[in-house]
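Most newcomers find our protein records easier to grasp once they have seen one. There is nothing in a record beyond a sequence line and a structure line. Getting from the letters to the tokens is the skill we practise here. An example says more than a description, so a record of this kind follows:
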Amino acid sequence: MLPSSRCVDLIRTYEGLKLKAYRCPAGIATIGYGSTGPDIHIGLTWTLDQAKARLQSDVTKFAAGVSRVAGTCTHGQFDALVSFAYNCGLANLKGSTLLKKHLTGDHVGAAAEFGKWIKGGGKVLPGLVTRRAEEAKLYRS
């Protein structure tokens, strides 16, 4: 399954775009549409084309990871899990109660789990509250 434009738009909206690397609330060097990794460091600058290309690459990577771990999904569930993994990391998705509930068919319970992932750097972040509500809505669609 491939992420829909709705998934990519959700990621783009909530990650925002920064062409100069910065530290996110969790202290991680970040650039573009929320891209992180060993190649990202403070002082790095990208063009818009670089940010768009990395977004596509990262979404593809997270979609492949979700495909490996999430079993059968509706497209809405898949898109929501890709957005979640993009923001929180595939390892966090793999170890989450959200995924466990999804895999056992407790989709109501899984949707409710999104709302528990609203902290960055130990603080509740209003943007994450809104994002998780959108992901839960997408999951239920």
In short: The two ends are 16 Å apart (CA to CA).
